């Protein structure tokens, strides 16, 4: 399973992607399941960027988007439970997909050592999640 933006899908908040050579190489001889939890939660692309502040996912314009983020995470978990992926490779620092770090909720570019909501839910359920930066 993989963050869809890493496969080149234009699902990033700004309408772009995070196409990654290492992921494309992995895809050459492995079955891949691309997921974008933010789109799956019902958010549009492009969309206002969000961060997690005091446990609540909030868009930069002040809108509470916690429900959408958690819905997307729950849908990803459902797919993972069904498909039992050997490995889940996720985009760094995303409020959804970040495995090791995410922004601190102040929209000032500060990082903290904590996962995004989807990565957290998948890891809590025993799935092996790897930050794309650690993919060798
Ligand atoms: S939610 Fe995850 S898959 Fe979707 S654009 Fe953000 S990092 Fe990529």
Question: Would you write up a description of this structure?
Answer:
The chain is of the alpha/beta class and 136 residues long. It has one domain. 28% of the residues lie in helices and 16% in strands. The chain is built from four helices and eight strands, in the order βαβαββαβββαβ. It has a two-stranded parallel ribbon. A hairpin with a 2-residue loop joins strand 3 and strand 4. Helix 3 packs parallel to helix 4. The radius of gyration is 14 Å and the shape is globular. The model has no long low-confidence stretch (mean pLDDT 98). The site of iron/sulfur cluster has 12 residues, from helix 2.
Structure in a nutshell:
The chain is an alpha/beta fold. It has helices spanning 21-28, 37-40, 66-83, 117-124; strands at 2-3, 34-35, 50-53, 56-59, 88-90, 102-103, 111-112, 129-131. The strands form 4 sheets. The chain has a two-stranded parallel sheet with strand order 1-2.
Rounded radius of gyration (Å): 14 Å
Q: How is the main sheet built?
A: 2 strands, parallel
Order of helices and strands: EHEHEEHEEEHE
Query: Could you tell me how far the N terminus lies from the C terminus, measured between alpha carbons in angstroms?
Result: 16 Å
Percentage of β-strand residues: 15-25%
Number of helices: 4
Q: Residue ranges: pLDDT <50 for 5 or more in a row?
A: none
Helicity, in percent?
25-40%
Class based on secondary structure composition and strand pairing: alpha/beta
Bound molecules: iron/sulfur cluster
Shape: globular
Tally of structural domains: 1
Task: Tell me the total number of β-strands.
Answer: 8
Average of the residue pLDDT scores: 98
Sheet with most strands: strand arrangement:
1-2
